[in-house]
Amino acid sequence: MINLLGMTLPQLQQLCVGEGFPRFTAKQLCDWLYKKRVDSIDAMTNLSLLQRARLNEMAYIGRSFPVRCQVSKDGTKKYLFGLTPDPSSKGRGEETMGLTRYVESVFIPRLSAPLAPARADGSEAATLCVSCQVGCKMGCRFCVTGQQGFHGNLTAGDILNQLFSIPEFEQLTNVVFMGMGEPMDNLDAVLAATQVMTSDWGLGWSPKRITVSTVGIVPGLKRFLDESQCHLAVSLHNPVPQERLQMMPVQKAFPLNEVLALLRRYDWSGQRRLSFEYTMFRGLNDDQAHAAKLVEALRGLDCRVNLIRFHESPEAPFKTSMPTAIKAFQDYLNRNGVICTLRASRGQDIDAACGLLAGKE
Question: Which CATH number applies to 2-60?
Fold first, then answer.
């Protein structure tokens, strides 16, 4: 059966034409799916009874509510989702065989001033961090998600369900693809989901409300830059190639210099923003020598660097940088022409902070 959630207008038009429905039925479907956000085909009351009956035979709306919600002392909420099964799979015993797969997403609410991070328009942000895969293939040594291995791609519907099925949907100002998985390794689904979010027939959001992260898979990154206007965040973490390779295996296939060379081919002076994520590890990448190499590597790029405190876990043999080292690193970058901020850690007490998502049930 076909999951209607996550289908784009052209895909729905193709479906409708193939079923002998009027072409405008696709627009009606978009309205019900993405503007009214119904979870039942029978709720689409401006479709004929025959159309609804046929759709119920061949399709479904892949909506499912979280199976668990954990709330941090700072108000951050971590949601656990079981992936929506195809209704035609009922009776195969997949859940009882332990094959149900889980992913996590994190709602980061507004903070009261003066702690709230300012958005471009001066208001506070309410952000949802979504996952795009179950686990991850990239194997970054400091990431709990990466250490659990790869267990499957999410569909565009699975991604959108993380937005549509939380109580805070109406509060959302931003979505970041920084949860479980590597977006450039599941790019078709990520692009379809962002197209739904930004198109007039979908949610109608500005691409500026969406940030997609990557460790730097060059072919997927090039396609993303050509086909999307969403913001980009590159996980850099170390400017020294051999040291980066020890922490991020992707460095072997797609060296950082190749990633930076690709990024320099695009214009970053407009609305689309380029940022680099840099997790601070004590004694590994947090001294002035690394700061100087980072400034040199990014010279000429219109970008910013987000420093992230490493969130220690039993799965990773690293320590968090000392506050004095983080401050000195940040100051050095800012003095040398690289805009640098320190990202606030949210939800660490419920394992919802950067690098801690594991989809455990």
Answer: 1.10.150.530
